[in-house]
Design goal:
It comes from Bos mutus. The chain is an all-alpha fold. 48% of the residues lie in helices and 0% in strands. It starts with 23 loop residues before the first helix and ends in a 35-residue tail after the last helix. The relative contact order is 0.10.
């Protein structure tokens, strides 16, 4: 037969010699089904392990971030309470003592917008000082289709 023609059905075709340099997708067409399944199972397993490891790291990162934010909120709440006590003690000192318009109070004062007092604003805000319980990670299902270029190596894709 001719070089660019199928020996069986005589349709135009191309002959490719199989070697280590042949495209892996073409090599896969000539592999045994069992070895092909083992290859893809190994690659899928590596991808799954890689994703699970990074999911855990991300969960730990956000757990730490939540803890830091809760601590910051707790400190801010304590600071607001402290400033309210100072403010109320200053108000009682000014209301009981003789003060004139030219006398400046000592210590920090809070800025008050017109029409609302700081205590009204803070009292209306409820803050839970108890740390939130750690949530169980949601079970994430994988994508319905996995497309592989090459398996992950040394914790890296690509």
């Amino acid at each position: 037969g001719k070089r660019d023609e199928c020996l069986i059905c005589k349709v135009a075709c191309r002959t490719v010699l199989l070697s280590k340099h042949t495209d892996p997708n073409i090599q896969a067409l000539f592999m045994g089904v069992d070895s092909l399944c083992m290859k893809y199972a190994k690659e899928t397993s590596q991808i799954s392990e890689f994703q699970e490891k990074h999911r855990r790291r991300l969960l730990a990162f956000y757990g730490e971030k939540i803890s830091q934010l809760e601590e910051s909120l707790r400190k801010s709440t304590l600071r607001v309470e402290q400033l309210q006590r100072v403010r109320s003690s200053q108000q009682t000192a000014f209301s009981t003592g003789n003060t004139t318009a030219s006398t400046k109070p000592s210590g920090p004062l809070l800025f008050q917008p017109r029409g609302s007092s700081a205590s009204e604003r803070v009292e209306s805000m409820e803050v839970d000082l108890m740390p939130s319980p750690r949530r169980k990670p949601e079970v994430a299902t994988g994508p319905p289709r996995i497309s592989l270029l090459s398996p992950p190596r040394d914790g890296r894709m690509g």
